Amino acid sequence: MSNQRQASSASQVPHLSPAELSYLYSSLSLPKTPIRPDGRSPTQFRPLTAETNILPGTNGSARIGFADGTQAIVGVKAEVEKTVLANETLARNDGGAGLDRGEQEGSAAVGGHGSWVQMSIEIPGFRDDDALPVFLSEMMRESLVGAVGTREASDMAGGLKERLVINKRWHWRLYIDVLLLSQPLAYPLPLLSLTTHLALLSTKLPKRKSQGEEDPFFDDDWAVAEYLYPRPSLSSGKTNSTGSSFVRPPVTLLVISVGENIIFDPNREEIAVADAVLAISITRDSEAGTLKLLSIRTVDPPSRLTQPGVPNSENVSMLGAVAPTEDVAVLNPATGEEEVPGVWRPRRGGVKRSVIAEMVKTALKKGGVGEEVLEGLEGVEVS
Amino acid sequence: MGIIILPPVVEDILPRHDESDDSMSVDSDEDVEMSGVRAPKRARIGNQTVSTGVVTPGEVVTDDPQWMRGHGTYMTPLSTSIIATVAGTVHKTNKLLSVHPLRARYTPEIGDLVVGRIVEVQSKRWKVDVAAPLLAQLPLSAINLPGGILRRRTSSDELQIRTFFSEGDLVVAEVQSVHQDGSASLHTRSLKYGKLRNGVFLAVTGTGGSGASSSTTKGGVGAGSLRPGAGSGMGGVVRSRRQVWTVSTHNGGGEVDVILGVNGYIWISKHADGASAASSTTDHVSITRMEEMVSTSIYSSQNDEIPPQTRREIARLAQCIQVLVQGGIRVDEETVMGAYEASLQVDLEVGDDEDEDEETRHEGREYLEGAKSRRILELVVQQVK
């Protein structure tokens, strides 16, 4: 039972007493200025340490450690694979004229396939087929393969799966192996997502020597290998498609709402009192540098499963000590539930639309959290 | 402001020099010889003594038969090598080698003030997590039953056992007795003890009450203060004269209680003295019923109204303790208060430096990580030394 609960809910719910939960909730839901237990501002992240290219045998790898001691390593391996052509693409290729332009369109028509990206997540204490790793890997893979370029014209501007196309018959297959090195103290999604992002940024594929539809043939020299996601510094020098150098792999942020407040990078205690937990995937996919929302997933908030507090008026061990009319239930503006101040009520789930909209806006807006995170990760030296 | 990404900290390979080493190393030649044995396997530098590095369980500390084994080590009957059983630093007293663990679970002793969390409710007792290897028990007969006067427990008390403490509740208690197997029996038969509310809980690791010495804290400062448990790892709460005290906080925070459980569990809450606790539950209380009122409010799980200023200062105190723990400094009244004052001072220093408008300056300025935490540690170390 407890194991099941652990796997289905947002994190290993710490056992917190109703008094603690109530204190946390009321601190975090103070209008405008939430007081987080560690003093951060609502949009502030805990400092993290990051490095890339730590695994010699991979195409790209990264390690990120959070200040609370949780660490993750991600390795990306690429493999050339023969594309199994679907009937319709074959048919369309037959129909198209053998022009140079037609060939380009043909390679775009193959367009990549979501199954070319394989992701496996290993979390200590969980089996491969437990709900948490499976759900996490699907959540991250979906945003990775779901990131589709807006402009069809430039061949590399799209998401990850378009980048994996070599030609009509061949493609790259990516294996992304995510390893959480520590116990999942908080919901590990943001850590794993940031690490995956960094690993993909550092991923290099060998330079192709073959042309067009030939069987792929690659340069032995690893030094000339090309980044899967071209870096801006390189693009100014030699890459011709400037648009694609702004495209970045998606990153998934964990955002919670407590009352009217929106809090980023929540720690375990903060998740425990959240009204709503959202995993918001964002990416940058155009030269304008604006962020795009890829997906929103709600995560089951563990506050649902907590123990309710007992108001003094109903407390049997305090009978006769309290005037019964003292506790007046007030309406929580965020959830629309009645509650006695100072007494914890488990959240029933559900927040107002405006709160959700605000969460997405804070993540996406110019100079907002999403941009800061992407810039921060960009700043990590890819050696 | 939003996110800070740091390059990985490279662990300094150079072992620390403790003052105690120099005074204790009886014969430096032997030490050279011993490290010579270990040299091929581990890149220890130069003529370091045994007592500097960190050893892991199963690692051979020395093969030399002249040493006696102490705590944290064992010897196989057929060989003379001393093997570590815990991860920690090697210490030697004359010819006795012992390994002090970096972190250990709490070993209860009679009279310890502990903070615990109820994990299980049984028919006549609670099982309490006190960070010890075994759960402690709190019998129903060892608590103050409501009704003011001390009385025998009745069957109705047994039936409503959950109204006193239920799963997840935090209690502050005293260790009444320690059983043969090392598990503890607690009691809360005092007005000081009972259920905790109006505050925050934090757990610190370290060697707990097992008498961490402050002389080994030097190397932990600054080196890797972002990683918990880094540094010398000898932090944690130590047994001391005062485990519970009241801080009169700055910035309009009012009075805040700090309870340092010997087991490393800490509770920081708004100060509630007897009279105000009673008056918060009811307005009209006669002086003769005062004690009764106090004892009944022990089992409340409803928080009082706590102003934001107080919450802010509680958060600051909690962070100060975290900073101390991450810096590997022992946690007691002196260091906590030192860190608290230091954090205020650091805030002033930082506030002077910045010429930004009020809005951005307040943004996250209460977060004491990174540079701020290092500065606080410096100040605390100065004060303590």
TrEMBL record, chain A:
InterPro entries according to UniProt: Exosome_comp_Rrp42_subfam (IPR050590), PNPase/RNase_PH_dom_sf (IPR027408), Ribosomal_Su5_D2-typ_SF (IPR020568)
Keyword Zinc: no
Gene Ontology MF: a single term: mRNA 3'-UTR AU-rich region binding
GO cellular component, one term: nucleolus
Major localisation: cytoplasm
Protein name (database record): Ribosomal RNA-processing protein 42
Coiled-coil stretches noted in the UniProt entry, renumbered to this chain: none
Subcellular location: Cytoplasm; Nucleus, Nucleolus
GO process terms (BP): exonucleolytic trimming to generate mature 3'-end of 5.8S rRNA from tricistronic rRNA transcript (SSU-rRNA, 5.8S rRNA, LSU-rRNA); nuclear mRNA surveillance; nuclear polyadenylation-dependent rRNA catabolic process; rRNA catabolic process; TRAMP-dependent tRNA surveillance pathway; U1 snRNA 3'-end processing; U4 snRNA 3'-end processing; U5 snRNA 3'-end processing
Region of interest: Disordered: 92-111
Source species: Penicillium daleae
From TrEMBL, chain B:
Biased composition (Low complexity): 212-229
The S1 motif domain, residue ranges: 109-189
Keyword Magnesium listed: no
GO biological process: CUT catabolic process; exonucleolytic trimming to generate mature 3'-end of 5.8S rRNA from tricistronic rRNA transcript (SSU-rRNA, 5.8S rRNA, LSU-rRNA); nuclear mRNA surveillance; nuclear polyadenylation-dependent rRNA catabolic process; poly(A)-dependent snoRNA 3'-end processing; TRAMP-dependent tRNA surveillance pathway; U4 snRNA 3'-end processing
Source taxon at top rank: Eukaryota
GO molecular function, one term: RNA binding
Compartment(s): Nucleus
Biased segments, Acidic residues type: 20-33
Entry-linked Gene3D superfamilies: 2.40.50.100, Nucleic acid-binding proteins
Keyword terms of this UniProt record: Exosome, Nucleus, RNA-binding, rRNA processing
Region (Disordered): 14-33, 209-235
CDD domains per record: KH-I_Rrp4_eukar, S1_Rrp4
GO CC, any one term: cytoplasmic exosome (RNase complex)
Broad class of where this protein is predominantly found: nucleus
Family of this protein: Belongs to the RRP4 family.
Family matches, as PANTHER family: EXOSOME COMPLEX COMPONENT RRP4, PNAS-3 RELATED
Protein name as catalogued: Exosome complex component rrp4
Biological source species: Penicillium daleae
